[in-house]
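BUG: 3D viewer hangs when loading the predicted structure for this chain

Environment: internal workstation, default settings.
Expected: structure renders.
Actual: progress bar stalls at 90%.

Input used:
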Amino acid sequence: MRHKKPAIAGYPGPDGPTGQRYLQQDCLATGREESDLRQGPSQRKEDEQYAALKAKLKSIQALIETVARKVSISARGIVKTGFWKTTWFIGLAVTLCFVLATDTDPLRRLEWKAYDLGMRFSSVRPANEKVVVIAIDDASLDKFGPWPWSRDILAEVNTRLAAARPAVIGYTLSFELPQNRRGLTVLRELRKTHRKALGKRASLLLQKVVTRLDTDKSLAASFKRAGNVVLAIPYHSVDKPISSVPDLPKSLRTHFLDDVRGRTDTSLNDWLRFMHPNREFVVDELYTPPSVIGRSAIGLSVGTEHLQSHDSVKTMPLVLSYGDQYLPSFPLLMTAHSLGLRRTDIQVELANSVKLGENPIAVDSSLQAYPFFYKTRDGESPFKVFSFADVKQKKIAPAVFRNKTVLIGFTAPRLARIVQTPIGEPMAPVMVMAHTISNLLNGDLYRVPKWGTLARLAGFMVVAFYLMFVLTRFRISTGLALTALLLIALLNVEFILMTSKSIWVPLMVPAVALVFGQLVLARKRFVDDSLHRYKIQLSEADRMLGQLFQSQGRLDMAFTKFRQCIADDSLLEQLYSLGLDYERKRQYNKAAEAFRYIKTHNPQFRDCDEHIQRNSELDNVLVSGRDSSKSATATLVLSDDDIQKPMLGRYQLEKELGKGEMGTVYLGTDPKIGRTVAIKTMELWQGFEGEQLEEIKQRFFREAETVGRLNHPYIVTVYDVGEEQDLAYIAMDYLQGKDLSAYCKPDSLLPIASVLEIAIQVAEALEYAHGQNVVHRDIKPANIIYDRRGKTTATITDFGVACLTDNSKTKTGTILGSPSYMSPEQLAGKKVDGRSDLFSLGVTLYELLTGELPFSGDSLSSLVYQIVNEKHPDVRKRRSDLPSCVSSIINRALHKGVEKRYQSGEQMAKSIRRCRKQVEEV
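Structure tokens produced before the viewer hung:
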């Protein structure tokens, strides 16, 4: 047979130079002579086909050359006209200019305007109720005089707050200069110099005056007693690294961060740093408080000096460098103490991340947070704000501050440096700190993801691609419309991510590049409109739609779409995957059809012949779940390893475990979580149709929902219930061990104590299930799995299968389950409750102890008559070594009268426990 490649697009025929190379490669691969590959019985017919394909290839090449000449994209045309004049180069140049100018001041301001707009349209969020502000407002200044006040006032209020036991107290006030320093120095020298002349009483009075005037010491004592005070230190910063900084007192050096690591990873973002440069906040001078105050605070942090009144607040640096050390910002340290953490729990990876304990904080590469600002409603602040004067005068109950994060700072316009915010509400720095702390506690920060720079670059690439290759293909009016749509898409991506996901991906500069590029290219539109007469090929769109359908499980629609595409190798691979999906769905006839379609385009594509043969055979002999005329007990798992393992719902069937009268049990796996399950298949609604079928299905799944909620150690767990192709299935826990039917023969009986322990466990399980209004209806040894390994346990299986099928089989009138274990009322077709299960448990106990059933008959009618009317033989007559208590338990459990039986599983379990104790004593 002649071996040749089809001469389609992308593959030359064997007669050309490249074709000879392919032919030689095929000879080497197969080990045959070239002459063998060129000869065969159907040579003439194949030559004709080849000639037709070759002619088609030549026509396609001619068409491509014609189009290239018309649009002047050939190499000769580009050189002749100058590539810098081509549309694609102009689009590329415009895009590159905006990429390089991304971080210029005008474009950066444009991005911030979009950021402000996005925040204003973000959904309303509640502020954290733990954050409370004590404002030094105009009323407080009118009450206590102009600032600065004596620090005794602050000490008194701090002592009152500490008594209320807040989580943390934070001061945004400056304590840089000591108070009354000159006066204290004079008084101390006077007391020291004239100690003898003053006398003891005058010296003591002078010491009291010194103590009263030493307000710094009073404030420090108040801070130390509180034990939870954080101070914001004023500072001066620069925007570039510095060589040296002033040394700090030893007592203040302990407030630097300990866990600061250099960045441990690199990424593509490092190469794109020019688009979003790293702006490190460098502190060159700290205005620290007096040592006595600094030592008494639990933490020192950098304050609010980065907030400038001439621009709105966008970001909040969380970590600032001071020399080769790093200090936490005021909001970061306050949040840590509010969460019960310490400074040592703050972990920093420079240019990458900040963590509070194990909780990462959304920051950018400069370790800046992007806080969300909560809007004022009806003129009321989102936080509880109390006047300092009211707190001082005890007008505010101390309980208000319990376990709260308390901030104290200026709000009076004459003292506070009022700043603008993105939501258009001016506020004092202490309020900005409150918003930021609430963001950190609530997780409301805007995230600037690591992939944000790549996303912005992708936006530029989309714009460049659009300007270079898309816009040129349309008329000006159509191009304007498409540009508007793309502009809306870019803006929507930024604003939707920001308003709904709190993710900020700056795309305003790519949007401006798009608009500018449209304006530039609109002036250069002289390309021939004949390009628009060519229809857009729908092959790729159909393929994507087919892939979408295939991912959704709509295989038939996917097959239809794939057949409308150009048949290249990648499409044949997709069709091959589709055929495998058909196999997994047990639609073997359609799988064979998919592989035949592949074979029509490439007869030697992979192993299509084997798949066609296997699927054709399976279609003739395998029972399909959709065929209502076949039994659900037929196996769905085949021994052929070459065929794809079938799927039932989301479960992959591995092998058959067993068959029963109501269905087949398989060993299955949930591929998503790797859970091994036992899957029982049933045809519950065979013979129903129309409204009655829908009613049966609804009832089945309603009962299944109830059974699925059962959670007991002696009841098998039901994970899932579903339906596929009219085949119902129940996914249950896969248990080890054997069912008790293996221990019902006289020569294989279990010890009496073991049997009683099993009965206790089953009774407890039934007590729990009956409390959930679920009745088993088919308690028997075959439905109880017994595991003798380690701590022996008994587990009821098929819990709910009987009650589910009982509701679904009412049409046929068939007696489901095992009549030998049924109660009289169940055989009579009456409504049953949990006491029917206890009757069945009594029958099971009787059989496990004696190896015989208490009721037997030559026919079903005889058996039913005995169960309903006759008393069972005494268990001790069949096994004399049983204690009398066993006979009493069985007699009561098998009583014909429902009211005279055990009324609950717990009642029966208690009786069996007492009997087991007697057995163990003997």
